[in-house]
Amino acid sequence: MRLMFVRHAEPDYSVDSLTPKGRFEAELLSRRLSKLNVKAFYCSPLGRAKDTAAPTLRRMGRTAEIRPWLAEFRGRSFDPEAGRERICWDYRPHQWLGREQLYQPDLWTQDELFAGGNVEEIWAETKAGLDEVLREHGYVRDGQIYRCEDNQADTLVFFCHYGIATAMMAYLLNLPPLPLWQTMCMLPSSVTTLISEERVKGQIAWRCSQYGDQSHLYAAEEPASTAAMFHEVYDGYDTTDPLDWILPPREHSPLFTE
Questions:
Q1: How crowded is residue 20: how many other Cβ atoms within 10 Å of its Cβ?
Q2: b/e 27-38 (16+ beta carbons within 10 angstroms → b)
Q3: pTM for this entry
Q4: Which stretches of the chain drop beneath a pLDDT of 50?
Q5: Distances (CA, A) of 224 to 25, 106, 155, 166, 213
Q6: Cα separation of 258 and 256, whole Å?
Q7: Domains and CATH numbers, the chain
């Protein structure tokens, strides 16, 4: 079994859709995915994911199942530095590094950093949602492995978002998601692939063979979008929105931006 997690193309968050560049990225992506023998497509209910999936589905004459839990990882908690709630995977490095519990796959949601939030609830929803999809295809989780009586070389494609895709990857690889959220980056329209390994008959483990792959952009000499990345050199902004990167530097800015 091959699982492909596709992050949406360059977003226009103001209208929950794609930028003109994002629409071009989605078209290039469709040329790649439409060549595959895909057993089933799944999609987030959010517009930017649907718009990313649309060219591929149109080319292939297919539809995607909408799964509400794919609508990004929505776990939030109160950030005392910002004075408000924030998405749990968007804390600044000094706020989470060195907190040992965050590195434990079964305990990370119980860290004090997430006290009073809904992180544990959304993590449970994510695990249950992914297990339901895999169970529909004959893969049943048993501790840290999956069991399958008839493992096949099928492909499932998920059109979704960075946070939820990384969470699914962490769950399948038996890793805590926060270090992955904070240290790795799936750029827009990229593809992350996990493949089943059946070294013992009926016992399935997962291995990542591609992370954040954008070969469809490279082939067309289309530059990658910077959405999801923070600035390499500090300039007063704390945002991953590419539209903000074209603004002039400022000496004083809010500690956090939406």
A1: 9
A2: bbbbebbbeeeb
A3: 0.91
A4: 248-258
A5: 9, 35, 25, 19, 11
A6: 7
A7: 2-223 (3.40.50.1240)
